Structure of Ribosomal RNA small subunit methyltransferase I:
Amino acid sequence: MGGVTGTLVLAGTPIGDVADAPPRLAAELAAAEVIAAEDTRRLRRLTQALGVHTTGRVVSYFEGNESARTPELVEALAGGARVLLVTDAGMPSVSDPGYRLVAAAVERDIKVTAVPGPSAVLTALAVSGLPVDRFCFEGFLPRKAGERLGRLREVAAERRTLVYFEAPHRLDDTLAAMAEAFGPDRRAAVCRELTKTYEEVKRGPLEDLAAWAAEGVRGEITIVVEGAPEPGPQDLTAEELVRRVRAREEAGERRKEAIAAVAAEAGLPKREVFDAVVAAKNAP
């Protein structure tokens, strides 16, 4: 490293109840030489609630100016500053601004650390009542209906529990699309306003949740969806077998290896998968 550099601190902030603020957050806010905040007004309310007096320079850092402001913050870090990044709620860079700054800091060999804090992803997962041993976070789905359904179909066979963020005004459409892509009986939980006064967790089959959401839902939303069940030989159509083989080929596997892997996953003879691939190739 060429000389002394500063430190980038990613600070988790409360997702609702300010009492959930991690103990180190107040100390880091007071000590930071630069505070990059997704919303400076929310930052002001947070510091007031925590009784913190900040002395560092405060700059806005949100989706609209993230690309333009990142070089400025990296130069401050390169000059030795301690830069604190906070978003409106939860951990920076998780469906929030921060990834570009972290990547740029790492590229310059600048130290990056974090103040662990509340996470809507883990909180929703924990209270959902669905399996938590394996899960994946999918963030926000596309806004356009066709793209959204396509994205959901890509993970319809995913066996891990799925976690999504969604805006309240799109919740009913998203749950309906999930019911179409995953099946109406797939279990899910809609977690609304976590840790806040009107916290609510609605659990049930996707079809029922979609009907409930059609009446209108407000607040911050996290959706947790049960993973796909273990498929048996009778569960997979020829089209699904071909799709899985193609997905593996696109990921770099040779066709022979892809067919063998899909057959093993499905509990089928390799010849059956091979025949499905050949039939699809020869289809008019």
About this structure: The chain is about 40% helix and 20% strand. The chain has a mean pLDDT of 93. The first strand starts at residue 7 and ends at 11. Residues 163 and 224 are 5 Å apart (CA to CA).
